[in-house]
Amino acid sequence: MYTIGEVAHLLGISTHTLRYYEKEKIIIPDRTESGDRRYNDSHIRWLQFVIKLKETQMPISKIKQYASLFLEGEHTTIARLTLLEEHKRYIEQQIKMLIDVDDMLERKIVAYKDSISNRAAKAQVD
């Protein structure tokens, strides 16, 4: 079992973020008799997944929806699948857009390098 500070350090997030996720019912940590939060390996894996969803621009509202569906049980499997498939399509669109931008940038960089090289060669001739 991990404390909130240990989990924050392990995952590279703040304790404030963990408390926020708890407030939003994205995670429900265990509690000691004195009320301290305790996280197990399952919580850690779930939080790693949540962090990846956030990093890929899934809105908190969708993450909350997914977490809520998960807590409702197996009868929500199709809804969870649909939510994840929609997010995957979004990520695939972002990847395509980034590849297109990368290609455009590469062409610009090559053009600038060629221009600089041509000017330098011309300057040596003059």
TrEMBL record:
CDD domains: HTH_YyaN. InterPro entries: DNA-bd_dom_put_sf, MerR-type_HTH_dom, MerR_fam. Residues 1-69 form the HTH merR-type domain. Keywords: DNA-binding. It comes from the Bacteria. Transmembrane segments: none annotated. The keyword DNA-binding applies. PROSITE patterns: HTH_MERR_2. GO terms for molecular function: DNA binding; DNA-binding transcription factor activity. This is MerR family transcriptional regulator.
